[in-house]
Amino acid sequence: MNTTPAFYPIGTPGTPWSNVERAQWLSRQARRRSYESEVVSKIKHLGGRFDLEEYGRLEYGDERFPLLAIRSRNWKDNLPVVLVTGGVHGYETSGVHGALQFADQYAGKYPDRANLLIAPCVSPWAYERIHRWNPNAIDPNRSFYENSPAEESAALMRLVAPIRDRVLMHIDLHETTDTDETEFRPALAARDGKPFTPGGIPDGFYLVDDSENPQPEFQQAVIAAVEKVTHVAPADDNNEIIGSPVVARGVIEYPLKQLGLCASITNARYKTTTEVYPDSPRATPEQCNTAQAVAVCAAVEYTLSH
């Protein structure tokens, strides 16, 4: 892991950012990859097998980003609904490509068992910048609530609103990276005028359950499937993962709705957030993508059999 910087280069320690610092931060963000060629093209390639929907369009300066979702063709109102989301944090690459891999390789198994709704890249501006925030220095994954300040979050909530009570399972695909500790957590502390306390990055896959409605057997079914593809993160010396108590092997809990997390946007019985570690010497990008796709498969199979 890289050495954590002693201070963040924008702002004054102890003072929250004003619009001046936010603009300074934005000026440092450079486009590093293409949403159109890496994501949109793959979604369009699936159009022969699924219904594609543009559920919103982001406008940031002179840039436009269509927000695209993949739906089961011949949607049946009598079937349960499964929701898959990825790329809420644009830099978490396997969340995006794992969702696309699931759609391409596995989603065809469920036409008579479930309606699938897949939003592979919720935050395309951040995908291109390999960043956690949107251009307003807002974290979409802390912004899933009424009157959200993040248009990425608001658009996804509008998409899901008509079926919110019909969703049986929602899996949200994420990563925990070394840059969480070297860039994104220091930036968050600087933005909010708070001290940065260095932490650790777990080496391996883990899940985040909903502390308000835990489903331990569901979580362990996903862990068991993913472990065949990549390794599970161990607890640290305090029996924690990223500061939260480990409630079962590879599982921690958050109050999803209270934190405004993506996995809180439906009333699904089964909810989970995956966390893959792409910087591990024991995992390749292909393994990370496959781990995400396998996690979705295991979550769907468990849900439909219970």
UniProtKB/TrEMBL annotation:
Pfam families: AstE_AspA_cat
Coiled coil: none
Alphabetical list of SUPFAM superfamilies matching this protein: Zn-dependent exopeptidases
Keywords from the named record: Hydrolase, Metal-binding, Zinc
Gene3D superfamilies per record: Zn peptidases (3.40.630.10)
Cofactor(s) needed by this chain: Zn(2+)
Domain Peptidase M14: 31-306
Stored InterPro entries: AstE_AspA_cat, Peptidase_M14
Family: Belongs to the peptidase M14 family.
Protein's UniProt name: M14 family metallocarboxypeptidase
